[in-house]
Amino acid sequence: MTANLTRKLYDERLRTLSEGSVNVNFNAFIDIKWDDPEFAVDTSDPRWVLTSADALGAHPWYREQPLETRIRIGIWRWAVIAKVGMQFENILMRGALDYLYELGNRNEEFRYLTHEITEETHHTQMFQELVNRTGVDTAGGKRWFRRVSRFLPLAGSLYPEAFFTGILAGEEPIDHLQKSALRSGEPVHPLPQRIMQIHIAEEARHISFAHEFLRLRVPHMGKARRGALSVLFPLIMRVLCDVIMIPDRRSAEQVGIPAWVVKDVFWKSEAGRRMLHDLFSDVRMLAEDIGLMNKVSRPVWKALRIDGRPARFRGEPALHTD
């Protein structure tokens, strides 16, 4: 396929994504009934108990705790993930704006990405509002991440392929966790449930863009730059996944979770290892398709314990036979 035809197809897909943003979009303070009594954060509501889709919720230690404790930890867990999610969305917006600043006229990326930034603004609002409503005073990501996050958006213009790899590393784990929670069939409190429904609907476009962006750009990168990205790709995935998924141990201890449980859940337990494997099936497929799986990078995926069968299609539910 010629470069011109590839670009034409890419632009057509971006126009489709842009139209999707126009036709299906949400407002954080219109489409969520924050003051509905059904959405209230009631610390006696068992629907705050974590589902088995969350590795912490599936852990025997958590399941053996009294209902009151499981509810309290469930509320805390939702708040921490929401706060980290807000911080990732904030980095995405700043980096995307940095990338957009130098785009030429008539570039389809400008319209689509500004739609995405608008949607991410609402996502940060609903994530932060959830945190506020829970009363959990969480700092979100680990201290080192909060410090380097001041500089990460610069990659939007300096190394956009690595930046949008990082965006996928932030979006894919949260999207996977949310879909798994909804697919579990277990009760979920209506407030995080509604937030997840909105986030999944719009995040599908955002993840699609990052995939399409990398599919367009990576095959045309120079050999050295592409080789470097092939190794950085799994490293970025694993590091940022850990930022999102693994709570700070001190914060966990404050709600009564022993350090050994955090260590076992992320990622020594059977459920934890399974989740870590499942989180990356889509991006393994992408890496295979765009030539980032090679004899140098494959051992890195394996060493990081995120190797395995790639998904057959985006969003393929994990299948387990045990």
TrEMBL record:
InterPro entries: AurF/CmlI, Ferritin-like_SF, RNR-like. This is Diiron oxygenase.
